[in-house]
Amino acid sequence: MPPKFAFTPLPPSRGDLTKRPDSVAGLAGSWRGQLFDANGGSVPFTLLRDGSPDSSVSGRFLFFATAGIAPTGVRLLEAAGRTFVALVGPYYDPQQDADVVTVFEGTRDDRSISGSFYTRSASWHDVVTSGTFLASRATAEPRAA
Question: Is 33 a residue whose pLDDT tops 80?
Answer without folding.
Answer: yes
